[in-house]
Amino acid sequence: MAQGPTITTIAKRAGVSIASVSRVLNGLPTRQDTVSKVMAAAEELGYVRNAVARSLKSSRTHQVAFAMADVGNPAYLAMLREIQPVLKAAGYRLVLHSTGADVADEIGVLHSLGERYVDGLIMVPLRVTDAHLRMLAAARAPVVVIGSVPEGTPVDNVRADSRTGVRLALDHLHALGRRRVGLVNGPPDTVPGAARGAGYVEALAALGLPYDKELVEIGDFYRADGRRAVAALLDRRPDIDALMCANDLIALGALDVLRAAGRRVPQDVAVVGMDDTDLAAASWPSLTSVSLGSAERGRAAAELLLDRLEDGDVAPRLVTVPPRLEVRASTAGEQAPPAGDADRPGADGAGA
Amino acid sequence: MAQGPTITTIAKRAGVSIASVSRVLNGLPTRQDTVSKVMAAAEELGYVRNAVARSLKSSRTHQVAFAMADVGNPAYLAMLREIQPVLKAAGYRLVLHSTGADVADEIGVLHSLGERYVDGLIMVPLRVTDAHLRMLAAARAPVVVIGSVPEGTPVDNVRADSRTGVRLALDHLHALGRRRVGLVNGPPDTVPGAARGAGYVEALAALGLPYDKELVEIGDFYRADGRRAVAALLDRRPDIDALMCANDLIALGALDVLRAAGRRVPQDVAVVGMDDTDLAAASWPSLTSVSLGSAERGRAAAELLLDRLEDGDVAPRLVTVPPRLEVRASTAGEQAPPAGDADRPGADGAGA
DNA sequence: CCCCACACGGTAAACGTTTACAGAAGCAGG
DNA sequence: CCTGCTTCTGTAAACGTTTACCGTGTGGGG
User: In what helix (H) or strand (E) does residue B105 lie, and over which residues does it extend?
Assistant: First the structure.
């Protein structure tokens, strides 16, 4: 941990000026024997370029920040997993901000762009407040927002389309002959809750089915909420034949309750989740789920940002990622074990 | 994105020297009216301190790196989720390196410490090679290794204890009256594979059970491997009454095959997983699993690193985190739906 | 043989901070 | 009114790079 060698150390040892050292290290045209002397000295000293000094001079940090509420959330995680390699390939490091559902903290991240410790930011705001919009307009570095941002906001924007996602699911259920499809939604004052609710209404209309508010139940986005909501629903409408759940955890809760009530899935009640997380493939029966393309959104955001870092002068762009329905046993189901399907690393690489 | 104001801009506007500005901004004793002038100017200009310049001068970046093979891996993710808030509370940013199981890449991360873009590193190596040890000895910043490192390596070290973990599981199964316990292990040339194999042998001996190599099957750490392995095992030893699986994915594979074969879990065959991931609580029946304390290891590592960053002169320390058995339906089981249990956020916070 | 062009390398400034040092100003005491 | 002390502030150097600019030395052409 001793004080590392600098360009000056090398210059002394090689008997040249620091300018020459810098030129050699940057591959600028230099006489051959100078090159050799410098390289030799650098080698012997184990020189490594100081990134901080370099950043100060060049005002490029080669770092990009990614800010979201919680890395533990599978949707954000899926984004992260795509963003990381894209940035890495382009020579950027990734700084992670978990803001923990705290709006003030999100604003803080935006503010901290002024510290210039990153070249750009990808952020997934929980909610877009006026404060967000003001900070986005004044941001000191390029920002890409995943989620919806009003037209005219000077940032690149990547969106999912959960309305259409719900629509896909309802079309699928309708095609399977289901006519009494319940909705187990999250809070309607959240962005996803609102969009999913709207998608449900829309889809019913498109299919010519009546909207029956007894078929809708609201809770939070967790498994226990799903259980509560579905219990209530079954109680109220025992003839229900399908459930559209606003995320996979809610759907797992639904499976718990249906099993306890002796309803077969999918024969008696078909169940669809949303987000297509790992849990969907792991559950029994495996869960049909609407993928909102988190991975694709992450990748798109990273690419937009890289583009802008290369050439900041393009107009703000909008990318919308289409949803996709992953059909599994909970709707389609022969009850066979899942095929050699989306298996994912889960080994503990650590341990002793 | 205009060129932001610097300390010099403020100095001009306030009619003082840059030294005074710096002093005010750092809260050093200063005459009151100077303070007001500087604060006013800083306010008006929307000044934000440049982190890069600051780092250069102070040789502190207030960044820490975390390097592991893959963020998607639940064990690493659990670590990350603990590390992040600890660092954040201490005023450090988190730089994430996903090395993708590439040893050269891990070495690269160690090497890049010389660039001094972080103050320290927490790393989870897949395997500890000689190259690792050399780089660790020469590291230009404090490193904490999660995993096992030979005695004498000059780094802080946090370990799990999967041998004891296997032991806990086998004790539990034995107490339930199971006597023909199979092992579905990962590759024995990996650190976790080896440790788990050793734990199995040890535990059998301690329980006075014979070691029967027909009861052991090896595959990789994925669900499909688990299915293959368990199919072979059932074929060879139809009288098997319990399965110790080297991770949760393997265990899910085991459940698939047992279900298909008409064996009831846990009545006919009890199943234990390892790592206690989200999947364990999500599966049906829910999975008894050995937690190796990933979260605790992450937290411990972060705390060790912070300690060392405060005062680099303490001797290298070793922390071993004990395993814990999470008993669920796959061994203990009434087949009731899981209680209002470890439900975790899974809502999509984005989308629209 | 001289001059010019050119390639190369060195000096110094700059990036935006922090901080050692010294000078200025204010004040109390003699 | 001077001395000496304290308190504050300004000047300048430093962190480790990159790079504009200029001087030197070489080789070739006239």
Answer: helix B103-112
CA of A18 to C1' of C13 (A): 14
Residue in the structure block whose two tokens are 């809770």: A219
Cα–Cα distance, A118 to B232 (Å, whole number): 53
Same structural domain, A179 and A211: yes
Residues 6+ apart with CB under 8 A from B74: A346, B248, B275, B277, B278, B279, B294
pLDDT at B311: 81
- Whether B198 and B142 map to the same domain: the answer is no
Q: Give the range of the structural domain holding residue B242, as residue numbers without chain letter.
A: 162-291
Please indicate, yes or no, whether residues B274 and B305 belong to a single structural domain of this protein.
no
CB contact under 8 A, B52 and A50: no
Helix or strand run (H / E) with residue B307: helix B294-310
Q: For residue B21, how many C-alpha atoms fall within 13 Å in the half-sphere facing its CB? A: 22
Q: Can you give the CATH number for the domain in which A27 is found? A: 1.10.260.40
Which residues neighbour B110 within 8 Å (Cβ) at sequence distance 6 or greater? B121, B123, B132, B135, B136, B139, B143
CA distances from B197 to A94, B128, B189 (A): 37, 19, 10
B106 and B117 in a single domain? The answer is yes
Question: Would you state the structure tokens that stand for residue A309, as one six-digit string?
Answer: 């870092």
> Both A185 and A36 in a single domain?
no
Name every chain B residue with its beta carbon within 8 A of the beta carbon of A259. 284, 337
Is B95 close to A139, i.e. CB distance below 8 A?
no
> At B127, which helix (H) or strand (E)?
none
Contact predicate A120/A309, CB 8 Å: yes
Number of structural domains (chain A) is 3
Q: Output the six-digit token pair for B320.
A: 């071993």
Cβ separation of A337 and B283 shorter than 8 Å? Answer: no
Tell me the C-alpha distance between B289 and B274, whole Å: 5
Residue B347 located in a structural domain: no
d(CA B69, CA B105): 9
A187 and A225 part of one domain: yes
pLDDT of residue A312: 73
**CATH code, domain carrying A303:** 3.40.50.2300
Q: Is residue B317 part of a domain?
A: yes
Q: What are phi and psi of A144, to 5 degrees?
A: -115, 125
Q: Label each residue of A86-132 as H, E or C.
A: HHHHCCCEEEEEECCCCHHHHHHHHHHHHHCCCCEEEECCCCCCHHH
Q: Are residues B201 and B282 in the same domain?
A: yes
Q: Is the CB of B18 under 7 A from strand C?
A: yes
Q: Is residue B330 part of a domain?
A: no
Q: Is residue B21 part of a domain?
A: yes
- On chain B, the residues whose CB falls within 8 A of the CB of A190 are 347, 349
- For residues B117 and B235, membership in a common domain is answered with no
Sequence-ordered strand ranges (E) for chain B: 63-68, 93-98, 120-123, 143-146, 156-159, 181-185, 216-218, 242-245, 270-274, 288-291, 318-320, 324-326
> pLDDT tens digits, residue range A163-209?
999 999 999 999 999 999 999 999 998 888 999 999 999 999 999 99
Which residue of chain B has the CA closest to A83?
B98
- Structure confidence by residue, pLDDT tens digits, B151-185: 999 999 999 999 999 999 999 999 999 999 999 99
